[in-house]
Design brief:
Pfam families: ACP_syn_III, ACP_syn_III_C
CATH topology of the largest domain: Peroxisomal Thiolase, Chain A, domain 1
Radius of gyration: 19 Å
Bound molecules: coenzyme A
Region (ACP-binding): 252-256
Distance between the termini: 18 Å
Main location: cytoplasm
Number of helices: 10
InterPro entries: ACP_syn_III_C, ACP_syn_III_N, FabH, Thiolase-like
Strand order of the largest sheet: 1-7-6-4-5
EC number: 2.3.1.180
CATH architecture of the largest domain: 3-Layer(aba) Sandwich
Number of domains: 2
Length: 324
């Protein structure tokens, strides 16, 4: 059975950076109090990128995909599978994956979206890995892309300070050399109300609440417990000890969740990739954005073992252990 090897990565961020101070001033003008000190001490977030009104999820996804394809050195026509993770698609249908395929000008390959919120990228990566290992695809484009700023209630200080927009992409290729070593996906739908956007469309109108709502403390506790178990499971499947992982690239939601997990897994902070300070929580885009940053600045190198983890609404969580 072939391995799925990551042969390229790329990312895209909108041009508009909103610092905590600027966001605090914007909220203060509406009578809502927050501060850089509160946001940094509770989450580690210092700024976020916010897409302009005319920038869609597919635009960010396309830019990240183009960079990943250029980085891999393949001809885009080789791609025979596109999986895009998002909870903020351009349309109800068709999928954003199909829109990206159209922008890339490569008709023919299977293309579909995966919806697992902030776990979306590890769900998409695991799905692509299964296709490749089964011999059903040879070259997959896997994208996480979001414009969460569109589903944030900018009058809710408990959530609006946490999220940002962006996209990241991998090119995976079938290879005889080790690539993805093990994967582990889980969900507990009974927890769907602790993090959700419960609006729907009926008779041409949004019915229900169109904004993201969250029980922050329940999410925090569930994330730490589920991700520790997931990491141990994926390492056991691959037959490696967690403390021998070279790089941990966790979902970038909160630096306190990340450091707590690092301690439980015996991983020092200098082996954990943190971008939540710059990107905030970009949901399905967060893991490939963080991975790409650490790969491009030379921290993640060929031969190393990297643990990727996602967690989010559903409730969903998952891990991918990969040799670069
Ligand atoms: C959201 C989170 C940062 C809140 O931190 P917390 O310590 O749990 O804070 P609480 O929700 O208990 O709120 C504490 C106080 O801060 C206030 N507060 C909330 N947001 C605030 C903000 N942006 N600025 C200032 N005060 C704020 C609350 O109103 C509350 O005030 P009160 O005590 O007067 O009622 C934290 O729960 C968290 O990170 N959870 C996980 C979220 C996450 O990762 N989500 C994405 C998963 S994919």
């Amino acid at each position: 059975m072939p391995f799925s090897k990551i042969i390229g990565s790329g990312s895209a961020l909108p041009s508009n950076i909103v610092s905590n101070d600027v966001l605090s001033q914007q909220l203060a003008a509406k009578g809502i109090e927050t501060s850089d000190e509160w946001i940094v001490s509770r989450t580690g977030i210092k700024q976020r990128y916010i897409a302009a009104d005319d920038v869609k999820t597919s635009d960010l996804a396309f830019e990240a995909a183009q960079k990943a394809i250029a980085d891999s050195g393949i001809d885009a026509a080789e791609i025979d599978l596109i999986i895009l993770a998002t909870s903020t698609p351009d349309y109800i249908f068709p999928s954003t994956a199909c829109l990206v395929q159209s922008k890339l000008g490569i008709a023919g390959a299977a293309a579909f979206d995966v919806q697992a919120v902030c776990s979306g990228f590890v769900y998409a990566l695991t799905t692509a890995d299964s296709y490749i290992r089964a011999g059903n695809a040879k070259c997959a484009l896997v994208i996480g892309a979001e414009t969460f700023s569109r589903i944030i209630d900018w009058n809710d200080r408990g959530t609006c300070v946490l999220f940002g927009d962006g996209a990241g992409a991998f090119v995976l290729k079938a290879s005889d050399e080790p690539g993805i070593l093990a994967t582990q996906l889980n969900a507990d739908g009974s927890l769907h109300t602790i993090l959700h956007t419960a609006g729907g469309v009926q008779h041409g109108q949004v019915v229900g609440d169109p904004f993201l709502r969250m029980d922050g403390q329940a999410v925090f506790k569930t994330a730490v417990t589920s991700l520790e178990a997931s990491a141990l499971s994926v390492c056991a499947k691959a037959g490696i000890a967690p403390e021998t992982i070279d790089w941990f690239v966790p979902h970038q939601a909160n630096v306190r969740i990340i450091n707590s997990l690092g301690r439980k897994l015996g991983l020092d902070e200098d082996r954990i990739v943190v971008t939540v300070d710059k990107h905030a929580n970009t949901s399905a885009a967060s893991v490939p954005l963080a991975f790409d940053a650490a790969r491009k600045d030379g921290r993640i190198q060929a031969g190393q073992k990297v643990l990727l983890q996602g967690v989010g609404g559903g409730f969903t969580w998952g891990s991918v252990l990969v040799q670069i």
